[in-house]
Write a structure and sequence with these properties.
By secondary structure, this protein is of the alpha/beta class. Helix content is 48%, strand content 8%. The structure holds zinc ion (ZN). This is DUF4276 family protein.
Amino acid sequence: MSARARILALTEDSGRQAQPTLQRILREALKLLVVGVDLNPTRIRIEPLPENDRALHAIHANQWKAHPPTRDTVILLGAIATRLMEPGGFVVFHFDTDRVWSKRESSENRQKFEAIIRNGVRRVLQGEGAPPVNPRTRPSLTATQVEAALNRLLILSPCYSIESWLYQATNELHPLCQGRHASQEHEQLIAEWAIDRTRLDEVHQPKVMMEKCVADHHNETLAQSFPAEDVWLAERSFHESVERLKACTALVEALSHPAS
Ligand SMILES: [Zn+2]
């Protein structure tokens, strides 16, 4: 059986934990799209770029935000376009909003994603710009096909950062924090975050706030306990990202197809 969806998962975070963390959060998000979805990897493949791919430099080193695009970013745009043109091809791109929820409209990262990445991929799909690695895949798409492909370029854009979502695993966060220091201030904060799931989206630089204890040392562990449904119900940036995925009818269709 061939895969129903092949999702290229990109995260601007580097380091060993970044990709498994993203994949875990993404899987939890997909479960909210289709009740009882079968995420068996033979059906729904979620995969990173190959190690040492030059496109990774563009994502990890913040190069993707540079205008005009660097050579590595051009390679990244080609890799995204290539995946979007494949049957069942999707791309999920995680970048931090670097703003709290109430200031998200002023997020430069969101603006740069649209201006540099989405528009850049659009140009590749339209056959402009650098050719894809394999010239046989040079696109000759109609305008409708280009927009349909771009609709499969999806973003996860947490406010303020990925830790704003991961710290929602408050039951796991608490011992990790208190194991490093007996901070009453942090204890109080974590208790508040557990009671009101909207609060973390309004914390400026949560990773810096917790830099003396948790920081980003346990992201993969925290992702495994991410309380996705509760955080979705809070209707902040995770909800926003899930609803964006849900608006991609091709993705919902691929997930909904019964196992055979
Ligand atoms: Zn702490």
